[in-house]
Amino acid sequence: MASKCWRSPANVSSHDLLLPNLLILVSLVIFALGFFPYKAFLPGHASFTADEASLAQQAPFDKVVFMVVDALRSDFVFSHRSGFRFTQQLIRSGSALPYTAHAGAPTITMPRIKAMTTGSTPSFLDVILNFAEGDKSSSLESQDTWLGQLKAKRDGRLVFYGDDTWLKLFPSTFARADGTSSFFVSDFTEVDFNVTRNIPGALDQNDWTGMILHYLGLDHIGHKSGPTSPHMIPKQAEMDDTIRRIYQGLESKNHLQSTLLVLCGDHGMNDAGNHGGSAEGETSPALVFISPKLRSISQGIECPTAPLSGDLGFYTKIDQSDVAPTLAGLLGIPIPKNNLGVFIPDLLRFWPQGDSVRLLKQNAGQVLGVVKETFPTFSFEDGPESEAQSEACADITLDGTRLACLWSGIRNPGDSKGQEHDEQVQQAALHAFLTQAQLVMSKTASNYSIWKLCAGTAIAALVTLWTFFHFFPVLMQKPTFGVWFSLVTLTYGATMFASSYVEEEHQYWYLVASTWLGWLGMKRVRRCLGVWTAVAAVTPLLIMRIIRCWNQTGQKNASQPDIARGILPVHNYVLWVLVFASYLTVLVKISVPSQSRMLRSMFVVVAFGLCMVALAFKISFTMADSPELLKGIVLLRAFALGGIDLVIQARAVFLGMVIYAVGITLSNRAMWRRPGFGKRVLKPIAVWLENDGSEQEGQEEALHGVLALFLMTQTRVTNIPLFILSEVQLQVLASMDLSTCELSLTSIILQYTSFFAFGGSNAISSVDLSNAYNGVSGYSVAAVALLTFCSNWAGPVWWLTATLLLMSRKRRDRCKGVRQLHLFSTCFIATTNVFVMLACTLLRTHLFIWTVFSPKYLFTLAWSLGQYFCISTTAFKLYIWLWSQ
């Protein structure tokens, strides 16, 4: 009776899943529009009052050189291991003031530039726009920035050299500009030379008031090899030499006597060399103000030195948004209208105390305008009339009321005990209001669209109900599997409501994978008890134990030693033995078996050549990227194609893979039987293949091998051995004769587990860009997006296709099994999306909403749109089209 009411998963066609798939996309987009809106900002540009204009005439500087060194972590400049020797000398002499600038999450270039130029808190949506290099919607042309104010100043003129993100943010701001792409991370040298070569001529000319420099090489080194790379100290010394040249120009050239040089990082980097998250290394860039004039207010500070707090808290720690009002005051321009930064106290010493109070009042009045827009119902006119009452503001818990109380303390500072005391009280009250306003406003919730959040969640819930309707027969017919699938899905969804579980999601999947593989092994031992059966049952668990130690990920243990970064670089000969074994395994897989000796020989020769070229490219790439992994192994250099450009090598490898895969596909006899495939036109070839075609199972194995070769090309060399470990697991699973339901759940579990095993996490900083430009000579949105996705989802893509390979061995039921896998994948994605959406909606005021839950939603988008919709759905439909009879 149940079968008449509930449709079996095996009978669900790809057409039945079309609408649910589209609804999943719709739900994700609607929710994202409500969850990642642009932050509102005050329109217009700030201007001086008469009193403020007179104060601006006392500004100590009239020009600025703003030098951004991408990913300049604080210890790169201030520690004993730094290559910035000249900069450290300036700090000791008093010609430079050092700080550690806190960069709030997301620690990505575009939002950090917005924070430093507007003084405001950027939207998390800028994380996405940061990667969309062609996007123009993120322009700051209509917003108030210190660059715009400096350009509007009399004789104001700006020049720019470096990361073209600035050109996207300020499209018509610069009189002269020379931009470089920020995403071509394979380049350590040219990308910085293109900036430095413009400096001598710019310093000689007196036609600019602001020069912006943005260097990228240090960040690229971090992405490729990490902060301990042998390239790092030489790059720091190169940047230090640039500072020396500019400083000498400030001292020697008359038109640069009142020029301020600012050295800063837009963000830092973690121990893996990445950024985007909220780890200390990512949020602690260096900030140094440099000028001979600073010797009038500074006696010098010890440098190099040890951090005052944590591992990277060198000197005074300020907020990155403090750069905007500080530069405005030092250059005599209005503070940007949306600024939330606070004037850096040390630099107020350029003015007498009375004028410094006036500067802080100007800063506080501008911030008050932003506060009033955020808290329109609060009165900022009435408040305490004594200093003692004002001190009680700290006991007020409501943000708006506390700010109103602090502002009233500024308006009514209490009984005066002399002008000097009154100025000190005013300065303290102003600073208290500014720092509290900065704290409150920086954590104020975004303007979420609640109805869009609810609509997106509701649509995802409808898809979940639809898939459950078709999944119910499994619960009835195979209750054990139904319990396992439901348990994995629901427990995973429940972990989305705890920030620590989201950060350490890999631990969940390692536990689930080990438990599930152990269950499958026990079932096999119960069916057939024997020594080899027991060995086969235990092997996947042993491999899983090795895999979970390969890359330390997450937050708590990300910096702990692991196999990929701790053991293999030290014992690099072991690494290369495993790499060679991995390529040998692929060679065996892609050598297509054939009934024709000539055809078989041809495939073997071509396969051998393809693998050798791919291996040679990987060795050449490693020589340029991480030469320390080849240290002491002279023999490997013979395999490298040093005289050929890496882009050309990569293109040759990719082209060879495509040609070989097409050849394998065309040699499949079953495909030629399909109606309308061109059998009439290519009849002679079809007849030849009918007589001498290779076995279908071998062809499918070979196609999977070609894909594995591509994924290995897109993987860090230290992760390549994971493919051979996965291959062993695959062969053991193949011997277990799993049902289609068991294969479906195995596929889902191992896809997620392998993502974390390869070093992925729910932090944006874990996104690996090291192979994003293989074969690409310039920035291409489509090509770079595809290569980046394949680099980071290599494990999940491999396990998806490996599952299809196991399904194909079930001759009679393989297409039904693939349809069933498609349905289960849809059910899992839809259900877990609901949990993620609910967590983001309910916890939208959580302290970690932007550092944990928002990045998790971005990764949910990547899993749903990339792995599920683009890769999985396409693979399912292509498989059924090719092999259905």
Secondary-structure blueprint:
Blueprint lengths: L1 H4 L12 H18 L14 H7 L6 E7 L4 H5 L6 H9 L2 E7 L6 H10 L7 H6 L14 H7 L5 E6 L1 H5 L6 E5 L9 H7 L2 H6 L5 E6 L1 H9 L6 H21 L6 E6 L21 E5 L25 E4 L3 H9 L21 H22 L12 H5 L7 H13 L7 H24 L7 H28 L1 H17 L3 H5 L1 H23 L3 H17 L15 H5 L4 H19 L6 H29 L20 H21 L2 H4 L10 H10 L3 H18 L7 H15 L4 H18 L23 H12 L1 H15 L5 H29 L6 H35 L2
Parallel strand pairs: 1-5, 1-6, 2-8, 3-4, 3-5
Antiparallel strand pairs: 2-7, 6-7
Per the principal axes of the C-alpha atoms, what is the gross shape? globular
Main β-sheet, in a few words?
Answer: 8 strands, mixed
Our Rg estimate from Cα atoms comes to 31 Å
Identify low-pLDDT runs. 1-6, 133-137, 383-390, 677-694
The overall pLDDT, averaged over residues, is 83
Termini Cα gap: 31 Å
